[in-house]
Amino acid sequence: MMRRWTFAQRVGAGLSACLLAGVLLLGTLLSAVYGHLITQEATPGALPQALVAGLVGLAGVGALGFVLHRSLAPLHARHEHSEQRLQLLMDGVTDYALCFLDRAGRVTAWSAGAARLSGWSEADVIGREADRLYPEDEVAAGVPRAHQERAAREGRLLAEGWRVRRDGTRFWAETLLTGLHDGRGRLRGFAQVTRDITERRRMERAQSLFAEAGRVLQPLSGAREVGEALTRLCVPEVADACILFVPGEDGTVRPQAVACADMEAAGRIWEPLLRCPDDGEVGPSRVVRTGRGELLPELDAARTSQALAGTAYGELLRTLGVTSALTVPLAVGTRVLGALCLMSTGPLRRFGEVDRAFMEELAARAALALDNARLLAEAKDALELIGVAAHDLGNPLSSLQLRLRRLRMLEGANSHDPRMRDGLAGAEMETRRLGRLVHNLLDLSRLSAGQMVLDTEELDLAKLVREVVERHGDQATAAGCSLTLRVDEDATGLWDRQRLDRVVTNLVSNALKFGRGQPVEVRVHADSDHARFTVKDAGIGISTEAQQRLFRRFQRVHDGGHHAGTGLGLYIVRQLVEAHGGSIHVQSRTGEGAEFTVELPRTPCTEACLPTEARA
Fold it and tell me: β-strands 187-196, 170-181: how paired?
C-alpha cells in the first residue's frame, strides 16, 4: 500500500516539474538564438518560433515563482507560528525542565525552566550532551545512554534518581524521556521533561518513617529499648549518625543510645561522648535546658567554629567529620526528657528547616513513647508491690478465717446470745470478702506482669461448684436468697482448681449481692468437648450499654454504697477463664436479673490459650 504524500510534498513535486519544464524551454530558446547568430542563415519562421518558445518558457518560470510564493508562504507562516508557540512553551514552563536532544543525546533546545532548575544556561548546554545533569558515578556507569536507548526502543521512559545542579548540589528528579520519530519511524531525537520532586520524596519518606516509628516505638520494652529503637530508626534514613542524650539524676546530660552508619566511626564516637557537656555550652545540653532545637546547616569538618571551640560537643563533631548537625528536644508538655542529635558526615546531606520541623514531630512521638515507657515501668513496680503485699496478706488472713470459723462454732454451741453469733458470722463474712479482694489483687499483679501459670489437674467441675455453693450458704441466707444447684455428674476436665474456684466464687458472690431477696440458680452441664456452668439471678440486671464494659478493669456498672467494689472481680474472672481457653458471656436486661455462662474446654489448653491481658 502506497504511503500518502503530505501537502508540502505534493507542492514540492509540482514545483520541481514546472521548474524543469521552464529550464528546458529556456534552453531551447537560447540554443535557437545562438545557432542563428553563428550560421547567419535566416531560416524562415525559425526565429519567431524560438522566441515564442522562449517566451513560453519564461512565462512558465514566472508562473513557477508565483505558485512557489503562493504555496509556500502559508507553510512558512505556519512554521514560524509553530516555532513561536514552541518558544513560548519553552519560556513559559518554569516548574519543569524541558529540553530537546538529537539522536546522539546532544541538547538542541533548553527551556527557561531547565535553566532555573539546573543552573545551566542555554549557552552552556546547547550542542553538548546532557550527561552533566547526572552524577558522575551514573555517567561512568552509562546510565544516561542506557536511558536514551530504552526510550528509543520503547517510545518513552519514566525514571527517578539524583540529578546535579551547576553548583554541585543534588536534587531528586522525575524524568520523562520520549523518543521522537518521523513519519517513516526513524529516530530524530528525544524530548526530556524533568521536575524536582525532592520535597515530595521527603514527605513520602516522612510518612513511611512515621509509620515505622509507630511500630518500633513501643513502650512495653522499657525506656532504654525505646531510645535504642529511635536512634536505629534515624540511621541511615535521616542521618549518618544519631545520638540520644538524656538528663541524669544529677542534671548532667549523658548519651543513652547511639547509632552510626559507619562502624569505624562508631568506635571513635565514645571518647568525646564520655566527656559530659557542661550546662552552658551549645549542643544537647542547652537543648535539654531550654527545650529549643539547634540547627547547624553548614559545618567545616576541618575547622571548628568559635562557638564550638573547646567544647565536648565541638570535639564530637570534629572527630566524626560532621558537615551538618541538627538537635531537637524530646518534650512532653513542658518537660524535656532528652535531646536527639542528628549528624551528617557526607557532602550530599544538609539539614534545613524542613528537616527540623519533621524531626521535631518525630521527637514528640518518641518523647511520648519514652514517657509511656516510664509510666509503664512505674505501674509494673506498683503492681509488683501489690502482688507482694497481697501474697503476704494471704497467710494471716487464712489463719484469721479459720480462727473466726472455729470461734463461731464454739460460741454457737455454748452461747445463746444472738448478737455474739451474728457478730462472728459478720466478721467471718467480711474476712472472706477481704480474702477475695486479696486474691484478686494477686491475680491482677500476675496478669499484668505476664506471669500467670496454670496448675492443671483432673478436676470434677460439678464437685467444685457444689463446694463453692455450700460455702456461700450463710451469705445466701443473710441476703434472703434461695441458692439452688443443678449439676451433671460427668463434668470433668484438666483445669486449675484454685483459679476455677475463684471464678465460681466471684460469680456466685456477685449473684447474691446484686440479686438480694431473689432466687439464685447455679447449673453445671457438659458435652463431649466442653463443660459449662451458669449462674443466674433475678436481681437488678445490667443495661446493654454497661454490658460492653462489664469485663474491663476497674469498671463498676452499679454505683452506690449498697454495691461497693473495686471493679476487678469480673475482669479477673474473664482473664482466668480465657487462660483456660474458655469464654464467658452474659445475658441480662435492666430489672430482669443476669445470667453468666462460662464455657471451658475439657482437653488441656495449648500455649495459644492466653488471657486477653497476655495477648495485648
Answer: antiparallel
- CB environment 389-418: b (16+ within 10 A), e (fewer): ebeebeeebeeebeebeeebeeeeeeeeee
> Which of helix, strand or coil describes residue 408?
helix
Query: 118 CB contacts (<8 Å, ≥6 apart)?
Result: 97, 133, 163, 165, 166
3-state secondary structure 84-142: HHHHHHHHHCCCCEEEEEECCCEEEEECHHHHHHHCCCHHHHECCEHHHHCCHHHHHCC
The pTM is what?
A: 0.50
Helix %, strand %, coil % of the chain (to 5): 55, 20, 25
DSSP state of 549: T
Query: What is the CB neighbour count within 10 angstroms for residue 136?
Result: 10
Instruction: Report pLDDT for 555.
Output: 62
Rounded to whole angstroms, how far apart are CA atoms 349 and 390? 57
Collapsing DSSP to helix, strand or coil, 325 comes out as strand
The rounded distance, in Å, linking the Cα atoms of 138 and 227 is: 37
Angle, alpha carbons 164-167-172 (nearest 5°) = 30
Q: At what angle do helices 461-471 and 497-514 cross, to 10 degrees?
A: 40
- DSSP tag of 190: E
Q: Strand 530-537 and strand 594-601: pairing?
A: antiparallel
C-alpha cell at 487: 449439676
Separation of CA 144 from chain center: 34
- Do residues 195 and 174 lie in contact, with contact meaning Cβ atoms separated by under 8 Å? yes
pLDDT along the chain (616 residues), means of 10: 50 64 66 62 58 65 67 66 62 76 90 86 89 88 91 91 86 91 88 86 75 71 79 85 87 86 74 62 84 87 67 80 90 90 83 86 86 74 60 62 69 64 69 68 65 81 91 84 86 88 88 89 90 92 83 63 60 86 90 91 61 48
Torsion of CA 378, 382, 384, 388, to 10 degrees: 150
Burial of 199: CB neighbours in 10 Å, binned 0-12, 13-18, 19+: exposed
Can you give the pLDDT at residue 598?
A: 94
40 dihedral zone (left: phi>0; alpha: psi -120 to 50; beta): left
Pairing of strands 594-601, 97-102: unpaired
3-class DSSP assignment, residue 58:
helix
The residue type of 383 is L
- Grid cell locating 183: 513519519
| Residue 142 φ then ψ, to 5° | 80, 25
pLDDT of residue 340: 92
Computed from CA positions of residues 23, 29, 31, 34, in that sequence, does the dihedral angle turn out positive or negative?
negative
CA dist 192 and 177 (Å) reads 5
Cell of 302: 576541618
Determine the Cα–Cα distance for residues 163 and 194; give it in Å rounded to an integer: 10
Q: What is the DSSP-derived secondary structure letter of residue 241?
A: E
How far lies 447's CA from each of 13, 374, 556, in Å? 96, 19, 20
* Among candidate residues 350, 349, 333, 329, the one with its CA nearest the CA of residue 341: 329
For residues 242 and 235, give the distance between their C-alpha atoms in angstroms, rounded to a whole number. 7
* Residue 596, phi then psi, degrees to nearest 5: -105, 130
